[in-house]
Please model this.
Amino acid sequence: MSEPRFPYSRGRHADPVPDALALTTDRLSVCYPGSDRVALRDVSIRAPRGSRVALVGPNGAGKSTLLKAVAGLLPVAAGTIRIYGNPLRACHHRVAYLPQRGDIDWTFPITVSRFVLTGRYVHLGWFRRPRARDWEVVDEVLDRLGLGALSDRQIGRLSGGQQQRALLARALAQEADLLLLDEPLNAVDTETRDVIYTVLAELKAEGKTLIVATHDLGRLADAFDVTIHLQNGFLVEPPENDARDTLVTEGAVWAG
Amino acid sequence: MGWLIDPFRYPFMQHALLAAVLIGITCAVLGVYVVQRRMAFIGDAMAHTTLPGLVIAHLWGWNLAVGGLAAAVVTAVGIAWVSRRQQVKEDTAIGVVFTGMFAVGVLLMSRTRSYRDLSHMLFGNVLSVTTQDLYLIAAVALVVLLTLWLFHKELELTSFDPTHAEVIGLRSGLMRLLLLGLLALAVVTGIQAVGVILTNALLVTPAAAAALLTDSFPRRMLAAAILATTCAVVGLVVSYFLQASSGACIVLACTVAFALAGLLTAVTRRTHRAD
Model:
């Protein structure tokens, strides 16, 4: 993968620190700009390379906030985030973020394939046009998510589930190592659900690290290695009736 | 066809045609972004706020375009400053700043004796375009179109998904600033063709018509440019024969084109349904 000649932001292409975990946060606190409310408080998590982490908790618990902070979209109020041992924003080409569907203007006149192509932009930077290799990656991920036949369709003319798959396709096109997925399974049809779970399993096999906010508690056990429970911006112990042998404590430590 | 070519025997009409076509294409292509990003109101505001700049430039003997551009920059900064803490919403800030600037312009105009010289700033007079003006218009057209071409993928991405742009380190605020800068340039030339009050029509109407015709962004730009060119020619010819305001005729041609595009869309949709 060649580095962009004119990257969008300097210092974004640092190499991983050897033996560093994919993601660690240390006593991370996050506030939304213009608000005094702390959306996330003292959250410490450790995600080894190749792990699949589920973020669960009620709405407003801080799942999205955590993902956004790691994606560099929210300022860190206190604590630290390290990605492959590097500080935030040092290697963002390795980090793909899948937003909730509502964050995107779906009426925009752009085709599905060009939408997925935007996942390649971090590798292009200013002035460089997409190359044959970029389009190959796009075609590949579109087929993988069952969107090959819809590649020339305007993105607003997709069903909700297809839009969700297009978002995942874009995240895959980035060829990132750490994927932050915000509710990829929210309100999707069964076909999409199955496709997404298949892709998540494949990503695991490829050694990618996944942090997934989800409401789909039924499949936590087989689809994820570890579950993190959030409530009111705090890490909490899993509820009593959760039989999962997750070890989440203050300081949240588990072995990978 | 003689009647179509006839008006363009005169050098001033040839100048006007070249100017109108260049300005039309520049505004129309940029307008596709303006319409899609719902910045039409900002374009309108920019056009109005250039007035005090134009008047001051006229009084002090500067180049009018420079005065207009300076006023546009002051406005952009002013709007950003007033709405910086989000206590005042941006559209409100625009409303406050642009009406204030326009009032200053009108006040300055009413205090000068050469009121009639300045009336063409309000309504435009593409027939008085000089060779020097043409160079400036061509330069602006080149800068705007080249910039749009160079930064297309970034402008496109920040238009529909600023979040992804931020994640990969592309600051959407920067692209917005770039677009505002291009808007200021386009508006200043638009004023030469159709005046302060009608400039927004060149930015919005051809692009809005093109948006009705196609779902593809590049095709929208092409369609908007073709529509604007056609409207510039038709508007000039009509104004020549009616001895009427060229600016108003060009804008009305755009309005008619928009109505036709709407009609076409309605008809094709009905035929589709009948199938």
Summary: The mean pLDDT of chain B is 88. The radius of gyration of chain B is 19 Å. Chain B touches chain A through 26 residues (CB under 8 Å). Residues 172-213 of chain B form the longest helix (42 residues).
